[in-house]
Amino acid sequence: IWLKYKTSCPRVFLRADFGSFWLAGILDWRRDKDCIQNMAATGLEPLIEQQISVVTNDGRLFVGVLRGFDQSSNVVLSDCQERVFDTEKGVEQVVLGLYVIRGDNLAVVGEVDEEIDSRIDLSNIRAAPLKPVVH
Question: Please, which pLDDT band fits residue 72 given cuts at 50, 70 and 90?
């Protein structure tokens, strides 16, 4: 059983199936670029003033408070830090402060549960850095 939700783009719908979501439809980036960017920007609206996590296309991970975005999904983060993963040294947190990330470099944006995040001891986590996103 799945539900079909209309989006702001007439050729695209959002399909929900037991808590998972898929974007479906026939898209041509050249024809539907504005429509795709508007859908992405609209999805960021509920995250304003929330702590979010951003994974970029080159595999970097940023955590900060979403202060704003524009029609190209460029995002502005305050209290931003980059989390740099290493298999031997643990996770290094690089404090960046106010930071802007271009919308065309966003791979994943998600809300951070601050209570759970505060309980994680990042110095004890060993992980390989993320690889770049391949489209």
Answer: confident
**Average pLDDT for the chain:** 78
Strands (E) across the chain are located at 3-6, 12-17, 20-25, 51-56, 61-69, 75-84, 92-101, 106-111
Q: What is the pLDDT of residue 123?
A: 87
Q: Considering only residues 106 and 36, tell me which one the structure prediction assigns the higher pLDDT.
A: 106
Write the CA distances from 9 to 1, 31, 76, 88, 120, integer angstroms.
23, 11, 25, 46, 39
Helix, strand, coil percentages, rounded to 5, for the chain = 25, 40, 35
Number of residues that this document lists for the chain = 135
Sheet containing strand 51-56, edge to edge, reads 92-101, 75-84, 61-69, 51-56, 106-111
Q: What is the pTM of this model?
A: 0.70
Q: Which of 37, 76, 80 has its CA nearest to residue 61? A: 80
How far apart CA 62 and CA 48 sit, in angstroms, is 16
